[in-house]
Amino acid sequence: MSLDTALLYLRKNQPRYRRWLEDFLRIPSISTDPAYKGEVRRAAEWLARRLNYDLHAHVQLWDTPRHPVLFAHLPGEITAPTVLLYGHYDVQPPGRSQDWHSMPFEPVIRDDRIYARGAADMKAQIIALMAAADAARAAGLPLNIKFLLEGEEEIGSPSLPQVLRERRSHLEADVCLNPDAGMAGEDLPSVTYGLRGLAAFELRVYGPQEELHSGMYGGAMPNPIQAAIQALSRLHDAQGRIAVPGFYDDVVPLTEEERKILAQIPFPTEEEAREKWGIVAYTGEPEYTPLERTVARPTLEFHGFLGGYVGAGSKTIVPSSATVKFSCRLVPNQEPDTIHERIRAYLEAHMPAWVKWELEYLVGAWPVLIPLDLPPVQTLKQALADTWQKEPLLVRNGGTIPAVAFLQQHVGVPSVLTGFALPDCNMHGPNEHQHLPTWEKGMEALTRFLFYFFERGKGV
User: pLDDT: is 400 or 417 the higher one?
Assistant: First the structure.
């Protein structure tokens, strides 16, 4: 059993792992669109074949009301520790094809980057986990390794809690290694110790049963777009704070020590943001830095507005309905169900009485703070430091990974978080990409983690 042997094996097999990644990226595993349900399953089955045939793992596919969960097991010594490797194989919709420089599901390599939907989030990270397990096992590491790969993370992991409760005995482990978080910058390895939670909603507002001529009925007929805008505009105040009563009641304030840690993380200045994204200025709570607003403060963001006519030219109508999608990112100790109740009550108080409306609570996920003194966190820090020859940054991530809280709540397994997607990877946007040299170093870091975790778990 030798780490050097594993790393040599890893480097020799890079062409094979890259072929895996390219094949995986060609599967449009879009979980949010029912039209792609078969493709999501195809991605799970592709992973099952690779894990079974190439890694010789014992593989099971667990069906859910939506998309399957894949479980795989590489048994080691009975007395050895167990690590659970988490990933999600579903991806976001690609968006408008004209915004992509190449086809979103036909991977293309340019300037050491592989471009495709899901490249960074998180198909490359899953292949990195598989490569690390492959190399560790080829070198004779007798660690117990399990995989939990789901197909619903991009829609909030709605089926996962029931799976975890029903399959708890399969998933018991000493720690979950989760590379879905990313790096703070190129050549800046990172350990993520905090994630924001999520409460997502769809608001539907109804006017007349059908579109009506605005010249004949405008001014008397209730307009659902007007009503939605009128109510939703009250959710923020002029300074960008969320105006819902009680919204901030449970928020754990940032300590000065945490603010010092976060201040070490690179973040675009306002001038750089104007140049990069074409914005006028940052928004939000003025007493917090832009980085603090994005990783450690709660938000309420609108994602889409549908209603009426938006085609070429003019169509003068009173629309029959309006639909708005929005969500809140939550921080400790905010609970998504409580936030749902407060937002619903606020809309009930401010929605005009002259329209019908309904609010659908789409998904809730809990925020997470991982103790920095957790032994596997120290193990992960060491693995990253030895790979990059520099101390990793400690970061909080503004995104949400529901599985982290679910695994702790339902199975009692803590998670450690890292990842090898860079901040400019266009995750969820057009031209998503993974920087390949960073990905390859990430495989080495994950392999080191498996060896170090085994050694410390065995008391070496």
Answer: 417
